[in-house]
What we know:
The complex is a heterodimer of chains A (446) and B (225). With 446 residues, chain A is of the alpha+beta class. Chain A is built from 10 helices and 14 strands. In chain A, a hairpin with a 2-residue loop joins strand 1 (58-61) and strand 2. Chain A is rod-shaped. Chain A starts with 7 loop residues before the first helix and ends in a 10-residue tail after the last strand. With 225 residues, chain B is of the alpha/beta class. In chain B, strands 2-1-3-6-7 form a 5-stranded parallel sheet, with helices on both faces. A 4-stranded antiparallel sheet of chain B has the order 8-9-10-11, covered by helices on one side. In chain B, strands 12-14-13 form a 3-stranded antiparallel sheet. In chain B, helix 2 packs parallel to helix 3. Classes of the chains: A alpha+beta (446), B alpha/beta (225). Chains A and B meet through helix 6, helix 7, helix 8, strand 9 and helix 9 of A and helix 1, helix 4, strand 13 and strand 14 of B.
Amino acid sequence: MKHAAPSLVAIVVRRIVFFAAFAMLAQLIGVFAEYWSDDQNLGRQAIEMETEALSHGLAWTDQKGAFSLPTDLRDRYASAEKGYYARVRTAGGGVLFSNCDKECAAHFLPLDLKPPTFWMRQIAAGKPLNVAGGRIFSGQGQLVVIEVAIIGDRDGVIWEVLAHEVTDHMILPMSLLLVFVLGASTLSIIQALRPVAKAAAQVATLDPRTPGARLPTAGMPKEIARFTLAVNAAFDRVVELMRSQKLLTSAISHEVRTPLAIARLELEKIDDPRARKVEQDLEALNRLVEQLTTLARLEGASLAPMAMIQPADMAEQVIGALAPLVYASGKTIEFIDKGSTPFEGHPALVENALRNLIENALRHSGQGASIRVEAGPGPEFAICDDGGQWPGQRKHVSADADRLGLGLKITRRIAEIHGGSFDLTTSGKGATARIVFGRFGEEGRP
Amino acid sequence: MRLLLIEDNPRLRDLLTESVHGAGWNIDTFGTVEDGQEAVATTAYDLLLIDLGLPDGDGLDLIRGIRRRAVKTPILALTARGAIDERIAGLDAGADDYLVKPFNHGEFLARCRALLRRAPDTAPPILIAGRLSFDPASGLLTCGESEVALTPRERALIEVLMRDVGRVTPKRKLEHALSEFGDERSTNAVELSISRLRKKLEGFQTGAAIETIRGIGYLLREVAA
């Protein structure tokens, strides 16, 4: 079961939104309770809202006010049947609009009375709303009085008032606040996590063999820096463990070589075919020791400085060292420089890889086999053998477990350490091993 | 010939002593850096065999100390450390050659012989490869009791090859040997001379063979006669 873990930003945003929604709900209940119990205030807000809405029907021409009922209010104020009354008049008492009969006119101020800027009168306490009131609007030096009476509130103006209040005094300011809080929080988290993301990218490429490889703590918040320091401490322990293992492997390998030398010298003095067999076993053991030493060196490779390697010189040196063994085995070896170019690498490791491949070709080819070592083109070597002749059944030529033994795994690792690649292909009776080293440091190639 | 062996392992010391005695040379053996230093300071040797991992110090430091005292005796370093950079470190310290453990008697004696030939105060030795022997002083090559007639070029080549017996001789080294005959620009000169040399040796039971390592050079190796 796979669930992608949400990002920290998503978690924080979700929680802020949740708590903001919770706070808004609480505030909504508070606002509702406060307004619902205050009929005076509700009535005042209703008059203000309705007169404001009706004022959109005012027009001023030639310093005279005119009124036409706004479309959205026609249903409510076209007639007096629904219990909503409106009267629009000038300060002088001229009526511009009225849906009011004589009965309802009693709710309004007399036409000859100079009206106040705003007035409101509760006709009956409680719900539904029964209020009357008015408000003066001015334009082009003229004053117009808009008066409204709500009797029974069939359209539910009271809910519009409440919705208006909630929107104006709660949702708008809180939404604005929420946007800023979310923006600031997201920005803060992204900024705080930037060094963490950088560290995470470095962890992916962190190699215990790289000297001084550590995660940086600069710019990290204190809490995350503490975690990074703990990771670095754990990493140090891994490096220390690897170093101990390397020392152990190296020490064991070196200590074994002297007894091996003694055994070989002693065996030479014994004239018995069984001694020759043991000599072969000792040779295999010596190879294993060499590989263990190389493994130990491999792990500490990056601790050693790199040097420019001339492939042709390196091949000449290794072939020179192995040629006596090759010819003593009844095989031949040759070298071809196919335009090799120098490259930067660890000479001990490159030499070991080349030696491994030549020894591998030597071991896995038959009598009279020809081994060809090619350097180049570029920073690479190819070791080819034609398989030779096997008395009776041919020894394995495929890339079987033996061919891909420890030695070749080491060779592959050496190629990787140098940013290169290694492959072994077999065709017919023979095999070709190709090791390509990294392109850094080479010259004269595109 | 008097050799000095500094090796901490008594069994290996005994085996190498036996080997050296078998070659007709004398040998003094010690197991520590301190004893070795004293021996070098008080006795003249023809060859120093020094193990690099000694109980009271590093053999490389011992070699450096010997070279600092202007002792020119050839040094063969014996070691378990065989990587190229470790060999370079040994040679930089002043060793003339390097023998990585484990090795066999033949290899050990061949290296000793090669270094003894370089010994500053010794007369030019007779070079041996299989049944061939070459006297650099007289330029005479013999196979058993028979003399092999050689041209000056062939003599120059066989001397270089016999000094490197069991090891690959780079072609350029042979070209250099022929340069005194004005042949340095002729890339075929070495091949022609080697070819003639091979033909001359074909008629003898030499117990040695000149192998061509294409692209590198030649290998004179001892073979079962």
